[in-house]
Design brief:
Layout lengths: L12 H13 L9 H13 L1 H15 L6 E13 L1 H12 L2 H7 L4 H16 L4 H10 L16 H13 L1 H15 L6 E10 L24 E9 L4 E8 L4 H14 L11 E4 L6 H9 L3 E5 L9 H12 L4 H6 L3 E2 L6 E8 L2 E8 H31 L5 H14 L7 E7 L6 E8 L5 H5 L2 E6 L6 H9 L1 H14 L10 H27 L6 H8 L3 E9 L3 E8 L4 H10 L8 E6 L3
Parallel strand pairs: 2-5, 5-6
Antiparallel strand pairs: 1-13, 2-3, 3-4, 6-12, 7-8, 8-9, 9-12, 10-11, 13-14, 14-15
């Protein structure tokens, strides 16, 4: 309400607001108040535009009433379809102008509609393109929202449009990069790069992308395909590349850097980005490639560099054991990142830039607990073998050595910290006993528990700034998690490379929308993830209500539901408007 200028002390504004609210809600006050204040509230409310429009709206509603006598026993519902998640996605789809982008790339209205169904389906009911086609036919009200009615379209059209989407991949990614930068006010200096893979159902022999390698999901029995993804520090995709399943992580970076240098439209030459990567990609050769490309980087060292700083970490842990003050820690070069995180960092200059030594109390506790569990299981297995040797069940040296080898395989990495020695008889062929002890290097392990080293290519940066850059790598990890679980990246059913690429790229497009939705919610201090939002909105549906009139006619009304409080809250934060109109049809009851 625009109140204009009012002659009322500020300490009485709350009273006035209360009176205006009562009038808006049609409530009566039972509390005696100033007659002057009551009159002021009456005058202000009478001048309000919505108050003046209310009688007109009420009269219009009366004039437009459609009164029919119906048999209440005949009332039933049918064709209930999901609408809530679709409306949430539609807001970001429209704001990004995706339909117009497709039209600019010569998509027909029918192809735009199919593309919309493919992308929305990945977000609402993740799966293959075939499952998306079934979902579109049977479960969603999206068929009433697309530019063209494609309700009877066959599944082959869905596959074909998927192929067309991949053909314009570069144009779409560039347009989305520019649109998202403007729409979400993105700085886009920090880029996070990683590689993941997903597995095929079937042997994939006819698919040039399908190759066997080490799977992220431990699916060693299936051929794989890889996806390289570059996202910014807010999680928005910048670049994607689909690779063979046996493509190693270090080998991917050179091709990505070459692509980024050639994409002049991204204007990366104006302000060189900082690439943030994990251990798997940060080889010495790759760091050299990044420097040659003129980019900056922040990575966790691939090699166990923390061993080079054992003295510094030992000093820190000694200070923490003595409960040293922040001033004492600072004098030793250490800074506590946040009081509640238990993370400490220290910057050390190196010729190539800066090493940041990081120690995390939570990481230390986790690693020590894992080591304790491994040590317990290892010693239990060694005791069982020792018992068998002492009983004479296993005597021959070759057999004992085989058993020791199996134990080492069972605990890779940790078993190497132990010297395990059989005790032979005089002939050297039979084993009489088994002894073991920790190696000297094992004593170093607890000192370095919870420790890691971040390398940055820049000098004179605060340790906390570099640490925060690296922590944003969780964004790209979250992107891969969403792609695989929330967006149906895995498994891949296609047995040819073109369809495989289309499947993965549709998932990337859907991820653009997912990040847009979650970013808008974060602006409203709502930190729920998409899978939670989707679950809540699934109960907001569009339904056909059917009834028989007194004239024995069948009346059908297609109508959207009334939003519940949980729906309304999300719709308000995302700016959702349900534009679908009520549709009424009347026909012969026999039909």
């Amino acid at each position: 309400m625009h109140l204009g200028t009012i002659d009322l002390p500020e300490n009485r504004w709350k009273e006035l607001a209360f009176l205006l609210e009562q009038r808006y809600l049609g409530q009566q006050s039972f509390t005696s108040r100033s007659a002057d204040l009551e009159q002021l509230a009456d005058d202000l409310y009478a001048r309000a535009e919505f108050a003046q429009a209310k009688p007109v709206a009420e009269q219009k509603a009366k004039d437009e009433r459609d009164l029919v006598t119906v048999d209440l026993n005949s009332v039933r519902t049918g064709q209930s379809r999901s609408l809530g998640p679709e409306l949430a996605i539609q807001t970001v789809w429209d704001d990004l102008g995706l339909a117009d982008l497709l039209r600019q790339n010569h998509f027909s209205e029918r192809q735009v509609s199919v593309a919309q169904a493919l992308v929305f389906g990945k977000l609402i009911e993740p799966g293959s393109e075939l499952s998306t086609w079934r979902w579109f036919q049977e479960k969603t009200a999206l068929v009433e929202m697309t530019p063209e009615d494609i309700s009877g379209l066959g599944k082959d059209s869905f596959y074909e449009v998927g192929d067309l989407l991949f053909e314009i991949k570069e144009a779409l990614e560039l347009a989305l990069y520019n649109k998202e930068t403007e729409l979400f006010k993105l700085g886009r200096r920090l880029f996070l790069f990683d590689l993941t893979n997903t597995y095929f159902e079937g042997n994939g022999r006819a698919n040039s992308l399908a190759h066997r390698a080490k799977s992220k999901e431990k699916r060693m029995d299936c051929p794989l395909v890889s996806l390289a993804l570059l996202v910014d520090d807010q999680g928005f995709p910048v670049y994607s590349r689909i690779l063979k399943g046996n493509q190693s992580e270090p080998e991917t970076l050179e091709a990505v850097l070459e692509d980024l240098k050639n994409k002049t439209e991204l204007r990366l030459d104006e302000q060189k980005p900082i690439l943030v990567m994990d251990r798997g990609i940060a080889t010495i050769d790759n760091l050299k490639l990044i420097r040659q490309a003129g980019f900056e980087y922040t990575v966790i060292e691939r090699a166990p560099t923390e061993k080079d700083y054992e003295a510094e970490y030992s000093e820190l842990k000694g200070l923490l054991d003595k409960k040293a003050s922040k001033e004492e820690l600072a004098s030793a070069g250490w800074q506590q990142i946040k009081d509640d995180l238990g993370v400490y960092a220290r910057a050390v200059d190196i010729p190539e830039g800066t090493h940041v030594l990081v120690f995390s109390l939570l990481k230390e506790a986790k690693e020590l607990a894992m080591d304790a569990q491994k040590e317990k299981r290892l010693t239990e297995d060694l005791k069982k073998l020792k018992k068998s040797v002492k009983k004479g069940s296993i005597l021959l040296a070759d057999k004992v050595n085989v058993r020791i080898g199996r134990i080492r395989q069972k605990y890779p990495g940790y078993a190497s910290l132990y010297a395990i020695e059989p005790v032979f008889d005089e002939s050297g062929k039979k084993v009489l006993d088994l002894v073991w002890k920790k190696k000297t290097v094992a004593e170093q392990r607890p000192v370095l528990a919870g420790c890691y080293v971040i390398e940055a290519s820049r000098k004179q940066l605060a340790a906390v700034d570099i640490w925060q850059e690296y922590i944003t790598l969780t964004r790209v990890e979250g992107a891969f998690r969403d792609l695989k679980s929330d967006l149906g990246l895995r498994p891949v059913y296609h047995q040819n490379a073109a369809r495989t690429k289309a499947h993965l790229f549709i998932g990337v497009l859907a991820y653009h929308l997912l990040v847009g939705i979650e970013t808008r919610l974060r602006w409203q201090n709502d930190h729920r993830e998409w899978n939670t939002i989707r679950s809540i909105l699934e109960t907001y549906q569009r339904t056909t209500v059917m009834m028989t009139s007194a004239d024995d006619e069948l009346i059908q009304i297609r109508v959207s539901g009334t939003p519940e409080a949980s729906h309304h809250e999300i719709f308000k934060r995302l700016g959702v408007r349900d534009k679908l109109k009520r549709i009424k049809t009347i026909g012969d009851k026999s039909l």
